[in-house]
Amino acid sequence: MKRYVAKRLFYLIPILLGITLLSFAMMRIAGSDAVIQKFDNSGIAVSQEVIEAERTRLGLDKPFLTQYFTWLGGLLAGDMGVSHVSGADVFSTFISKLPATLLLTATSILLTVVISIPLGVLAAVKQNKFTDYIIRSLSFVGNSMPNFFVALVLMYLLAIRLGIFPVITTGISLKSVVLPTLTLTIAMSAKYLRQVRATVLDELSKEYIAGAKSRGIRFSITLWKSVLRSALVTIITLLALSIGSLLGGTAIVESIFMWDGVGKLAVDAINMRDYPMIQAYVVWMAIIYVCVNLIADISYRILDPRIRLGGDET
C-alpha cells in the first residue's frame, strides 16, 4: 500500500507540470491581451506607451518559456504572483474564497448521499413496482434539467415568491447556502440513485444472495452488510468525481447566486484575462483531482480486499 501511494504521488509531478504548461500556453494563444483588457474594464483611455510600460511591468513582454519558468519558480517558492487586475496577492485571494467552496461542497455531497443511497436501494428492492417507477421518473426529470434552470426555478419559488431564502447571497451562512446546495443536489442525486439502483440490482442477482436466503439469513441483513458494501465501490467512484468538480467550484451556480467561491473567482478571472489567478485555479483543480482519485483508490482496497493496487498481491 505504501509503495502504491508513493508511486501515485510521484506521478503527480509530471501531471502537474504538463497541465500547467498546457494551460499557460492556451492562455497566451487565446488571442487577447491582459493589459488591454485591464484598461478596457477600467474605462480608462491610455496611450500605446502606457500599455507597453504596463506589459513590461507585468513581464508579459518576455518570451513564453521565460514567462512560464518565472511563474513556475515562484510557485515552487510559494509565490503565485499578484493579480493583473487588482494587484492583490493571488494565493491570499484564492485562499479567501475556499471556505465558501468547501461549505458548498460539504453540504451538497452530504445531502446527495442522504437522498440518493436510500432511494436507490429502495428502487432496486422494489424493482418494477409503483415505488420504483416513481423514483425512476423523478430521477429522469432531475437529470434532464440543467443546473442554471433548476437554480432559476428555486430562486423564483423559494426566494422571490415565498421569501424564505435570500435571492442573492450576502455572505457565507447556512441560510445562504441552501439554494445553491439544492441546485447541485437535485442533479447529482438524480444521477447517483440510478447508479445505486443498477449496482444493487446487479448484486441482488448473484448466487450468494440466494445462498444467504436459503440459510435463513434475513434479507435486510444481507442487503445492508453485503450488498450495500459491494455497491460502495461504485458510489465512491461517483463521489470522487463530484467532489473534485465541486471543490473546483461550480461556476454557473456560484455566478447565479453570487456565491463567493473559487468557481466565481475563476469566471471573473477568465473574463478579465487575469492570468495569474487563472493559473492558480488550474493548479488547484489538478491537485484536487489527483488527490481525490488517490483517496478513492485507497478506499477501494479497504472496502474490497480483492482489488489489487499496482499489481500487489492481496
From TrEMBL:
Keyword Iron-sulfur present in the record's keywords: the answer is no
Q: Which domain of life is it from?
A: Bacteria
Q: What are the subcellular locations of this protein?
A: Cell membrane
- Please verify whether the record's keywords include Oxidoreductase: no
The chain positions of domain ABC transmembrane type-1 read 98-296
**Similarity comment:** Belongs to the binding-protein-dependent transport system permease family.
- Its membrane topology: Multi-pass membrane protein
- Biological process, per Gene Ontology: transmembrane transport
Q: Name one GO cellular component term.
A: plasma membrane
Keywords (A to Z) from UniProt: Cell membrane, Membrane, Transmembrane, Transmembrane helix, Transport
Q: Transmembrane residues, as ranges?
A: 9-30, 102-125, 137-158, 164-187, 231-258, 278-296
Q: Where this protein primarily resides, as one coarse class?
A: membrane
Protein known as: Oligopeptide transport system permease protein AppB
